[in-house]
Amino acid sequence: MADLGFIGLGIMGKPMTGHLLAAGCAVHVYDLVSETVLKLASQGGLACSHGREVAQKADIIFIMVPDTPDVEAVLFGRDGVAGGARPGSIVVDMSSISPIATKEFARRLDTMGVKMLDAPVSGGQVGAENATLSIMVGGQSEVFRQVKPYFEIMGRNIVHVGDNNGDGQTCKVANQILVALTIEAVGEALLFASKAGADPAKVREALLGGFAQSRILEVSGERMIGRRFEPGFRIRHQQKDLNVALQSARSLGLSLPGTAVAQEMFNAVVAQGGSDLDHSAVLLALEALAGHKV
Amino acid sequence: MADLGFIGLGIMGKPMTGHLLAAGCAVHVYDLVSETVLKLASQGGLACSHGREVAQKADIIFIMVPDTPDVEAVLFGRDGVAGGARPGSIVVDMSSISPIATKEFARRLDTMGVKMLDAPVSGGQVGAENATLSIMVGGQSEVFRQVKPYFEIMGRNIVHVGDNNGDGQTCKVANQILVALTIEAVGEALLFASKAGADPAKVREALLGGFAQSRILEVSGERMIGRRFEPGFRIRHQQKDLNVALQSARSLGLSLPGTAVAQEMFNAVVAQGGSDLDHSAVLLALEALAGHKV
């Protein structure tokens, strides 16, 4: 059995590492917060002092950190993974970051004989805790096959999106574009219904039976009507993911007019102090524009 | 059994009237195109010379015409329904028009003792032909109960949205806001995936398993990937429905930023000559902005 590494032991990485340990894997762990490392060590994790040490000891190194610069620092920064990884090592980045930067990171690792997969997830904290994450994977099939058994310990819906590095991140970005715009759509539809004097709960019900049906109308629509905006998936994470989408789009030479408007609406909720609310709270920005509540 | 009337015998009204006739109803029919009236008469319809005559002979008068001004003309124009309807008559407008104008029409009819329901449909030509329309109804419960048996002959998913005149139209507008924005979302997501080098078909498949799932991702997403843009639901109808949404929003004092952007994208497809394509062809506008095809 391969020796594993896990770098980034936050609200996602900690339970994911816990599942690997519970399955009997040897996991070398590291986080910027040493207290977290000690906590994992008490559950059987093998504590390391930096990413380089993790890479020296592990064959497959999982990374779960917040954003693109964090992944870059973990890989190529001081005491980073690149300083310890050996030819044949596999780096699996499960963070949600730029697909373009991902391709570049994979290219740099490849010159050292290190293989990379990008494997961002959806399902959030609850999915991480219950091992029900969806995992979208980009990278060579042969490498995917080697890592798949570990993905299956951490998640449920594992899709190999494509052989290119970055295909998993691209899929995650597409997911976030679709989620953000659909939530805004539900907000505009229910706000219109309410302002025009209809019962938004009745309207939601009626629409669920037709072509406009979506899981987001079901789940986020119900949150909007009940004004239940505790997270869930936080506005500031949605904002960060749309930032990846819009920056990547600009780099690729792509215009995403709907996504740009949706991001401005999320920005407006943050301006109102709502960065830790659920993303369905985009309704608050639309309500502010209208001076009317659903 | 009540005598029925049906005004507007186009691609929707004709098959709907056909179902009422097949169920044994007496239906007094009228259309601006006299040829169409004769065709329905050959199927057992009772031909009339104008809407006023329909209203004189029928207890319940169904209307199915393209837009708000058409309904106004049918009701209050020369030889219109208002000239023939009696106290106790019921007008059922199944067109998709402005909820605000609908409230006004209902108020005017009410002063004459005539009751009104608004009952726009979704499901299009296929739904009309197969009697599988969804019907969203606004108006008094008691009136709804009288008309419901006839709705059940023409459709399948019959929802009484609320007691206010206009609630059905409001629900339809909400539906069209949601549909238009979700289609644009699917277009932006798949275009991003393609431009970033992933396989959009694989991405669609992966996303169908998660929170971004929707009937529109399933149906319109597949059309976009296969470039099958024959209608379906035509861009020009989507454009007209969003026009109702945006005009109503302005009247109500409501800002719908996402819907406005979506309308501009549909406008762009029309500018390219695509007004009779399926609404999933909004992808063509996004592709034009990107200089890249999915």
Describe this protein's structure.
The structure is a homodimer of 294-residue chains. Chain A is of the alpha/beta class and 294 residues long. Helix content of chain A is 54%, strand content 13%. In chain A, strands 3-2-1-4-5-6 form a six-stranded parallel beta sheet, with helices on both faces. A three-stranded mixed beta sheet of chain A has the order 7-8-9. In chain A, helix 8 packs across helix 9 and helix 8 packs across helix 10. The longest helix of chain A has 29 residues. Chain A is elongated, with a radius of gyration of 20 Å. Chain A starts with a strand and ends with a helix. The model of chain A has no long low-confidence stretch (mean pLDDT 97). At the A-B interface, strand 8, strand 9, helix 8, helix 9 and helix 10 of A face strand 8, strand 9, helix 8, helix 9 and helix 10 of B.
> Overall mean pLDDT score of chain A?
97
Helical coverage of chain A, percent range: 40-55%
By DSSP (H or I, 4+ residues per run), the number of helices of chain A equals 13
**Computed Rg of chain A:** 20 Å
SS-based structural class of chain A? alpha/beta
Strand order of the largest sheet of chain A: 3-2-1-4-5-6
Oligomer: homodimer
> Per DSSP, what share of the residues of chain A sits in E-state strands of 2 or more residues?
5-15%
Q: Sketch the major β-sheet of chain A.
A: 6 strands, parallel
Compute the separation of the termini of chain A in Å. Answer: 55 Å
> Which parts of chain A are unreliable, with pLDDT below 50 for 5 consecutive residues or more?
none
Shape assignment of chain A: elongated
Largest interface, and how many residues on either side?
A: A-B, 74 and 74 residues
The topology string of helices and strands of chain A comes to: EHEHEHEHEHEEHEHEHHHHHH
Give the beta-strand count of chain A: 9
